[in-house]
Amino acid sequence: MTDMTQDTRDKSPIVRYAPMVVIGLVALIGAFALRDYLSFDALRENREALIAFRDSNFVLTVLGFVLIYVLVVTFSLPGALIATLTGGFLFGAAFGTVLNITSATIGATLIFSAARLGLGDRLKTRMDGSDGMVARIKKGLDENQWSMLFFIRLVPAVPFFVANLIPAFLSVPVRRFVISTFLGIIPGSLVYTSVGAGLGEVFARGETPNFGIIFEPHILLPILGLCLLSVLPVLIKAVTGKKDVLK
Can you give the pTM of this predicted structure? Predict the structure, then answer.
């Protein structure tokens, strides 16, 4: 780990920051150029063509879908919710959820790695060398990384790209980031993929799905319960003073 950190610090600023600069530029351009293409209206208008292409080229459709979803997440493009709905619409609730979670995790890991390459290790070095309040905050985060990672993934109000960048700036290990991302996004992905799986009937009635369904009590309360469960080790340690058993 030390050698890897040293290698990152030895890289030129161009090498360190280039991935995040590229991601930022593509995200900025995509926010304006792609918003009409990665939208619910675009999905509704092209649904028959998408279904026909899927039926004729299933494997190619799966690969193309995963690639597009990964690019959407990696470059923080508009349309992540629509991509999740499309996964359910094209592949059903079960297989669609698997594809959505896998694609989102890959994309999140790519942007996490880019941010960590540019700033993560340097910020960690500065925080490690600090004292006072900053040092105490850093120590608390280090001791409770698992709880923090699951918490920011489960809370619906935390934007997905924010949950990708915060761990990078805290130099969270890649393995820990991947595991917490994959498991932490399952509840939300399952909800919206299931909504996507029912879009056929919604389209037939000329209606629009309820995108705020995740905030309805019968769905939100179980997710909040998982959030509480994720921070339970922190609460227990605060009361007992014991070390984080997940560390």
Answer: 0.79
∠ CA 85-186-139, rounded to 5°:
130
pLDDT digits (tens, 9 = 90+) for 138-194: 566 677 888 888 888 888 778 888 888 888 877 788 999 999 999 999 999 999 999
Contacts of 236 (CB under 8 A, 6+ apart): 242
Ordered DSSP codes for the chain: -HHHHHHHHHS-HHHHHHHHHHHHHHHHHHHHHSTTTSSHHHHHHTHHHHHHHHHH-HHHHHHHHHHHHHHHHHTT-S-HHHHHHHHHHHH-HHHHHHHHHHHHHHHHHHHHHHHIIIIIHHHHHHHHT--THHHHHHHHHHHTHHHHHHHHHH-TTS-HHHHHHHHHHTT--HHHHHHHHHHHTHHHHHHHHHHHHTHHHHHHHT----TTGGGSHHHHHHHHHHHHHHTHHHHHHHHH-PPPTT-
Listed by start position, the domains of the chain span: 2-240
